[in-house]
Write a structure and sequence with these properties.
mainly alpha, 75% helix, elongated
Length: 110
């Protein structure tokens, strides 16, 4: 069978993105979907780092229970609060940056 020069419908989009990503409705939703994914990932990271702060807190309480030196316990307590504060500040900054970026992309499409 000789090639006719036409692509078959099944092979039509092998050279790039799927056809549904080229539709107008997807291009309008892409910034919103990107924002949602970024926020979900950032929230997961916030939770993981928050678990580290909880682990430090548990270690502090355990060390207090076995009467370890106060300087070590105080240092670990300060570290716990520093980790939690940095995590929260970075999360807020990231959400703010992502919000501004998404708003600009949505306004640019208008």
């Amino acid at each position: 069978m000789r090639p006719t020069g036409r692509k078959t419908p099944m092979l039509e989009h092998l050279d790039g993105a799927p056809s549904w990503t080229k539709s107008k409705s997807f291009t309008q939703l892409k910034p919103v979907l990107t924002f949602v994914v970024e926020i979900l990932v950032a929230t997961a990271v916030l939770g993981i780092v928050g678990l580290a702060a909880v682990a430090i807190s548990l270690a502090v309480h355990w060390l207090e229970a076995i009467k370890i030196d106060g300087l070590i316990v105080s240092t670990l307590s300060a570290l716990e609060y520093a980790v939690l504060a940095c995590d929260a500040i970075l999360y807020i900054l990231f959400v703010g940056k992502s919000t501004v970026k998404t708003a600009r992309e949505l306004l640019w499409e208008l």
